[in-house]
Amino acid sequence: MANDFYEILGVPRDASQDAIKKAYRKLARKWHPDLNPGNTEAEQKFKDISRAYDALGREENRKLYDEFGEEGLQAGFDAEKAREYKQWGAGFQQQAGGGGGGAGFGQYQSYEDIFGDLFGFGGGGGGFQEAGPSRGRDVEHEMTIGLLEALRGFETELVMQKPRECGTCRGSGLDSGAGMTTCPACGGSGRLNVAEGPMQFTRPCPQCGGHGKTGRPCPQCGGSGRIMAEERIRVTIPPGVREGSRVRVAGKGEPGRNGGAAGDLYLVVHVKTHPLLRRDGDNLYMDVPVTVHEVMAGGGVTVPSVDGPLKVKIPPRSQSGQTLRLKGKGALNTRSRKRGDLMVRLIVKVPRTDDPRALEAASEMDDHYQGDVREGLRL
Length: 379
Known about the structure:
It is built from 9 helices and 15 strands. It is elongated and about 105 Å long. It is α+β, with helices and mostly antiparallel strands and 379 residues long. α2 runs antiparallel to α3. The longest helix has 19 residues. The relative contact order is 0.10.
């Protein structure tokens, strides 16, 4: 499938938010895993569709994607610094083209500071001689829940295998009982050249982590500074989540390095279909069986709902297929905090019987139809 999110959803780049939402719903219904059991291609397409809608379905994310591409949606991306870099690059080209003596770096002292500040591996302004604290990566975890759970919200406990800081070396990756030696890769400088020419810049040495010293790897983690461990995480799924929603659990991603903060855990929610309820936007739809007498005479019937049993008043002389609207009894919109409506469609059920009395009663009812019920039925 195409990498461009607009192509994935099949919409032009100037499409309205409503058009994007409609395209997502149509594709999600087509490729939903519940409707394509065992189809790995459909499962992958559904993931791509959900990922594209997560980027384009919200205006703030869409603006970042339009300006910077998919990189603009990565955790830790700084849009302001990216724009500053673009401005610097434009200024550099102007000065180089005009025969100037070279472009200034503004608040940055070197070319590498710009990249370091933009992507978070250095400290713009003063250069960097040693790898500082870095934030841990965000982690995604997919979970499938029922429609009622999605509508009502719930708390649960996840048991996950995820990396955590090694307790033996406290994340350094080194055996604290062994001595330190000069790093053979960088010669103790902590830096390695990345490029040569008029714009030379360096990066932290990967072997010693920018410290210039190295030692014997930690016997517990093998030098990685992390170990895999089981963690129980208590999470709250808010009411109203829908297919493809991302629920953030702060600080439960991968641990940071050198004292950096941990990343976040993002739960990607998939919602199973329900045998009675169907969600479309913030409205819920339900078919309710009724008797011939109930639709003719009118009256009250009890129907189930997200909030519990509800009494629904059927107007006299209702028809099969007629829809009644129960305002504010639909799904909660997680942004506006307003609820949609519950749409109840009446389905008239006739008795399955050969009892002569029932057939006679039905025959007598025929006299009360006003004209041919199939009048106008033609192609």
